[in-house]
Design goal:
mainly alpha, 12 helices, 0% strand, hydrolase
């Protein structure tokens, strides 16, 4: 039984299945304003803690708000801002890592020692410290996550650039008189970009989990904005009487993270890209 399960998860069927699931989730997040059955922030205490019904398919929370509507709107924040964090961190890491690896010398030494110092601490602890400095709020959490996560991409790209510098086509470009900028633009960057798809699937789960964790701690998304981590935080007071208030957003987080991780693992096995942990 265990062997058959491993075979299924290692097969290439994982890639299209996970891609379809993620595609559906992104479509739902985009269309949330048009497909939600109710206003996700409308408070109506007359309908608080209602069981599932035709009007409220997943019931209501302690303030009478539709759970399904809040789950759908929460996907917009969790998925949308995770992509923003990934793209921003990746862009910073690509620029610094490529520049550091290609130039070398004391510039490379200083930048990499800084990255080593950041990576010596647990990323969540650093994010908590930065949010404590910036103050609570979604914008501050996004900024803190970007400032912490770019170092991992910089390290990875720097290693790729160091390897590419020794290739014959780079030497040929130098002999032909190409400038450093032209070599980086035409030869270095195109060769380090292909792993981006794999890196994205491997890291999106971390970004979503970090956003949800910050919101659960009350440092990220603030009420009444619907977000999965914040919904778990609000529902923890009703864990004995209405555990579904935590169950629904928790299952949503688990579904997205597991799907991204399965897709990332399948792609990393195919293309030989390692995750950061």
């Amino acid at each position: 039984m265990i062997t058959s399960i491993r075979t299924i998860f290692k097969s290439q069927k994982v890639i299209p299945i996970c891609s379809i699931i993620l595609g559906i989730l992104f479509i739902i997040a985009i269309l949330a304003p048009w497909i939600t059955p109710n206003d996700p922030i409308a408070v109506n205490l007359a309908y608080k803690l209602q069981p599932p019904s035709w009007d409220f398919p997943l019931g209501t929370d302690h303030l009478g708000r539709c759970n399904l509507s809040r789950i759908l709107y929460g996907a917009r924040i969790s998925l949308g801002f995770a992509i923003l964090i990934f793209i921003s961190s990746l862009a910073i890491g690509l620029i610094i890592g490529t520049f550091s690896g290609y130039k070398g010398g004391w510039i490379d030494h200083i930048l990499m020692r800084f990255c080593d110092g950041v990576m010596a601490f647990p990323s969540l602890i650093l994010v908590l410290g930065l949010v404590g400095i910036f103050g609570p709020g979604l914008s501050q959490v996004i900024l803190a996550l970007m400032l912490v996560q770019w170092v991992y991409y910089a390290r990875m790209f720097r290693g790729m650039v160091l390897s590419l510098k020794e290739q014959n086509f780079i030497s040929a470009a130098k002999i032909s008189g190409s400038s450093q900028w032209k070599i980086i633009k035409n030869h270095i960057i195109p060769n380090v970009l292909p792993p981006l798809v794999v890196m994205g699937t491997l890291e999106m789960g971390w970004a979503i989990m970090d956003i949800s964790a910050m919101s659960f701690l009350g440092l990220g998304v603030q009420s009444p904005t619907p977000e999965w981590g914040a919904m778990i935080h609000e529902g923890k007071s009703y864990i004995r009487t209405n555990p579904e208030l935590m169950l629904y957003p928790g299952l949503s987080i688990m579904l997205v993270i597991v799907t991204f991780n399965l897709l990332g693992e399948a792609l990393s096995e195919r293309y030989g890209v390692k995750r950061r942990f």
